[in-house]
Amino acid sequence: MTKPLRIGIAGLGTVGAGTLSIIEAHGKLLAARCGREFHVTAVSARDRTRDRGVDLSAVRWFDNAVELAADSEIDVVLELIGGSDGIAKEVVETALANGKHVVTANKALLAHHGTQLARAAEDARVYLGYEAAVAGGIPVIKSLREGLGGNAIDRVYGILNGTCNYILTAMRESGRDFSEVLEEAQALGYAEADPSFDVDGVDAAHKLAILTALAFGCEVDFDSVSVEGIREISALDIAYAEELGYRIKLLGIAQQSEGAVLQRVHPCMVAKETPIANVEGVFNAVVAEGDFVGRILSEGAGAGAGPTASAVVADMMDIARGSTLPTFAIPAAQLAPSKGTSMAAHVSSHYVRLMVTDRPGVIADVAAALRDEEISMEAMLQRGHAPGEPVPVVITTHATTQQHIASALQRIEAMEAVLEPPRMIRIESL
Ligand SMILES: NC(=O)C1=CN([C@@H]2O[C@H](COP(=O)(O)OP(=O)(O)OC[C@H]3O[C@@H](n4cnc5c(N)ncnc54)[C@H](O)[C@@H]3O)[C@@H](O)[C@H]2O)C=CC1
Ligand SMILES: N[C@@H](CC=O)C(=O)O
Ligand code: NA
């Protein structure tokens, strides 16, 4: 048997502790599958005294994770701290500069510095694994880089944030309030250190930027992702979506057209009978559309200790077996400069909900604003009759550009009878 793979772990929180548990539970299985034993030889975290359910007494402890990353008795460094800059970046850069393989679950780091880190890894002839960074336990990186390697990818999209999907599912199923459900997702270890990254769509955008680079062979370009989160989604909109035959999902979607890529993250209404509408709770799903293979959907847990650690361990197995694949499928130096395009010209149907004073003429004024922007209404719904009182009015439109809908909504919002900013959710046909 080849000599053991010496592992240093920086970060022993949800994912770090989960990784230790798998190595402890499946040490023999991993060795049999890779022809090498996995030895955790060093660890670093903020709190040395915390019980992580695994005996670490024989493992070297580093107060400074960067020193761990430079240690000569480590072959692979697991960066499981988090954050796009600061200590996590320093750990990864130090490990690569010292000729060590790196496995990270850190999508923020890769979304901001992925191209540069991929170059550093390839220059040092080491492996940079990040399966855990996108869709947790779903082997989506392996699938795109290897299994679908013979296809040009037309579109890649999915439910990329477990916390948001958990919140939207629980709100729909139990009618509970947004903040109560968010606290539950945090307690389960799903949410980011700063949960606004989850609910504002930033985490999904980090993951989408990584998928885009891999799928389309371009540099990672987080700045050109258009991002909206789920904070504004109310129980009322979830109930109307149900009634209209839709589910609300936060999707990340990247599509290439004429050499440019549109990357967008926003809440979508998707028809209830589509597979993605039925992906619930902390589960993620990723769909890749290849020119020869057609549509592939992978579904699984996108967050949490076990599923995320499962992906970390899979990357270590690739390293143990000597894989030398480029980070983003083609050598980092050959990735095309990213050519992002904006949402302005993007065409879709829309759900619009207004809260209006119930009086004659309001609907006619709203219809006129839509007509002036050449937006055709598909349906309109107003329940009950309460003269002079606030009532919800729901409109669905036929396909129109973002520019047109934004102008119409601006005009509608300014109307005296419209009592609060209109809520708009794009209807996505998948
Ligand atoms: N929790 C999840 O479900 C998932 C998390 N991730 C990513 O995995 C990474 C880790 O996330 P979690 O385990 O959830 O975070 P966590 O907050 O549970 O754990 C972070 C760990 O890093 C340690 N740490 C913080 N600063 C440090 C420093 N200066 N030196 C050494 N150690 C330090 C902390 O002591 C803690 O052990 C993040 O990049 C996160 O985005 C990715 C997929 C899923
Ligand atoms: N906070 C993230 C964790 C996994 O990446 C999520 O909720 O999906
Ligand atoms: Na994954």
List its traits.
alpha/beta, Rossmann fold, Dihydrodipicolinate Reductase, domain 2, Alpha-Beta Plaits, six-stranded parallel beta sheet, 17 strands, elongated, binds 1,4-dihydronicotinamide adenine dinucleotide, binds the ligand N[C@@H](CC=O)C(=O)O, binds sodium ion, Homoserine dehydrogenase, homoserine dehydrogenase activity, HDH, NADP, ACT-like_dom_sf
Q: Summarize the main sheet.
A: 11 strands, mixed
Helix content: 25-40%
Can you tell me the number of structural domains? Answer: 3
The residue ranges in which pLDDT falls below 50 over 5 or more consecutive positions are none
Quaternary state of the chains = single chain
Terminal Cα span: 49 Å
Radius of gyration: 24 Å
Count of helical regions: 13
Helix and strand succession? EHEEHEHEHEHEHHHHEHEEEEHEHEEEHE
**Which descriptor suits the 3D outline?**
elongated
Mean pLDDT: 96
Give the bound compounds. Answer: 1,4-dihydronicotinamide adenine dinucleotide, the ligand N[C@@H](CC=O)C(=O)O, sodium ion
Walkthrough of the structure:
The protein has helices at 14-34, 65-70, 87-97, 107-123, 140-147, 162-174, 178-187, 196-199, 202-216, 235-244, 305-320, 362-372, 402-413; strands at residues 5-10, 38-44, 60-61, 76-79, 101-104, 128-129, 153-159, 225-227, 246-257, 260-271, 283-290, 294-301, 347-357, 377-382, 390-397, 400-401, 423-427. Helix 1 links the parallel strand 1 and strand 2 (38-44). The protein folds into 3 domains: 5-133, NAD(P)-binding Rossmann-like Domain (Rossmann fold, 3-Layer(aba) Sandwich), CATH 3.40.50; 140-302, Dihydrodipicolinate Reductase, domain 2; 344-427, Alpha-Beta Plaits (2-Layer Sandwich). The strands form 2 sheets. Strands 7, 8, 9, 10, 11, 12, 13, 14, 15, 16 and 17 form an 11-stranded mixed β-sheet that branches. The chain has a 6-stranded parallel β-sheet with strand order 3-2-1-4-5-6, with helices on both faces. It is α/β, with parallel strands linked by helices. The chain binds 1,4-dihydronicotinamide adenine dinucleotide, the ligand N[C@@H](CC=O)C(=O)O and sodium ion. Residues 10-16, 44-47, 65, 80-82, 87, 105-107, 132, 136, 189-190, 192-193, 303-304, 308 line the site of 1,4-dihydronicotinamide adenine dinucleotide. Residues 136, 161-163, 190-192, 198, 203, 302-303 line the site of ligand LTNE7NMQ. It holds the Pfam family Homoserine_dh. NADP(+) binds at residues 10-17. Keywords: Amino-acid biosynthesis, Methionine biosynthesis, NADP, Oxidoreductase, Threonine biosynthesis. Its EC number is 1.1.1.3.
